[in-house]
Amino acid sequence: MNDHLDFTLALHARLAPPAAKTFCWSPYSVSSALGLAATATGGRTREELVGALREEPASLLEVLGRAAELSAGSGEQPVLAVANTLWTHADLPIEESYRLALQDWPGSAVRNAPFQDDPEAARKLINADVAETTRDLIPELLPTGAVHPQTVAALVNALYLKVSWREAFETAKTTERPFHAPGGDRDVPTMTAARTFGHASADGWQAVSIPAAGGAEAVVLLPDADLAEAEPQLDAERLSGLLGALEQRKVELFLPRFKVSGSAELTEPLGSLGVRDLFTPAADFTPLTDRSLRVSQVLHESVLDVDEAGLEGAAATAMMMRLTAIVREPEPVRVEVDRPFLFLVRHRDSGAIYFLSRITDPS
Question: Which family does it belong to (predicted)?
Fold first, then answer.
């Protein structure tokens, strides 16, 4: 799990906007796309991807595959949809070994798109497929112009997750409470509950885990200091220790309702993690095809909505490829989330992180 946490925090540090801004992205979706790319590449290109991911595609797939299956239970069933699609121009030869390797990934498919014949039609086709997987939460992953006349393939991951809390927050108890945002204090709708949660306090952070259906959980990460100061110091070892220290105890929790989104082009953040060959004519895609390819863009979009009933989130990542033209119950712990905080949603057993959000202003 530490490898996945390390990748998550390393890319988050390079991807997230300045500390005063709310943001959300999906480590699950991005690492899925990068894992598919690592499987499709060789030589130094693959080595750079594995270095950024901190693990081989096979071990990453084990984590992501376990997280792609939420367990059923009583009450409202969790909804989790994962799609990993290789879109190709019909004339692009695909190695049979890669088709077979792709089948190991959750929700895998190989589909044709008229990239060179009708780039706009290809863009709409991919967007429609992503919108279907994400229940229309991400209706247009690829903006106008994202499909170039030289585009011949795209690796696309799409993720949708909707889970209810094991025990819902009472809507009647949601009230306006002050939140100390960077731009000034403001009143925001704040949910509250006094019951047993997972709780930890260590290394300048408090963590509260909120169990959800199917084996998912949300974890509020509230720093003792300013988030802008504490967030850069949160490394994989510290976060892993904090998550490992969670113990069940009575907590009086005050948590704002929020809806957060984020979008980004990942070429530069991935480059800062050492992924460079992928975007150059030196890219080695021989496990995928005998044609010379390079990645022209990596696009990502994510949205997460948290309320009294549970959470709903969606994310998508697209790698666009072109031909290379070249006992006594203690007193409850009071956790009032009234200032900027981090919020992650993960699969509890595998440790895969579906979403990581920074909330600086829930209004």
Answer: Belongs to the serpin family.
